[in-house]
Amino acid sequence: xxxxxxxxxxxxxxxxxxxxxxxxxxxxxxxxxxxxxxxxxxxxxxxxxxxxxxxxxxxxxxxxxxxxxxxxxxxxxxxxxxxxxxxxxxxxxxxxxxxxxxxxxxxxxxxxxxxxxxxxxxxxxxxxxxxxxxxxxxxxxxxxxxxxxxxxxxxxxxxxxxxxxxxxxxxxxxxxxxxxxxxxxxxx
Length: 188
Known about the structure:
The chain is an alpha+beta fold.
């Protein structure tokens, strides 16, 4: 039996996504496919405590990296969403097991958050600023030879642009603050 759920996670919500996927597996639903942007397909299974971990690479990952993860007991699921890699493994009851993480120390967890900022957040922010600059409505633009006249975006276009600006501003701010909190958590 299969089920597909819609769930939206931002680039800063990767830890929340890992927890959500783990809860799904503990409820008897293991992840089998992710369809961008937000469809998760699960297959019925025996409920198990399985840890899910995400990694972000801004290019196709090498078979050597995947094999290294497998050597540490991680099952590679898929790479999607522009570079996110999905792994899982059964949770060990051994409290001293250090192989529950893809990133074994706090420094590498901070570097991971920095990689997300540099690889996704900054480029998206730059594209957002460029699109805002290019979309600024000009109330009137006239060719002095008497030909071309542009009267702006109109009411509907202005409303859509305003909504887009608000959503992108909120999303960029949210991701920036959340990634900073993640980094601060691992600095302690």
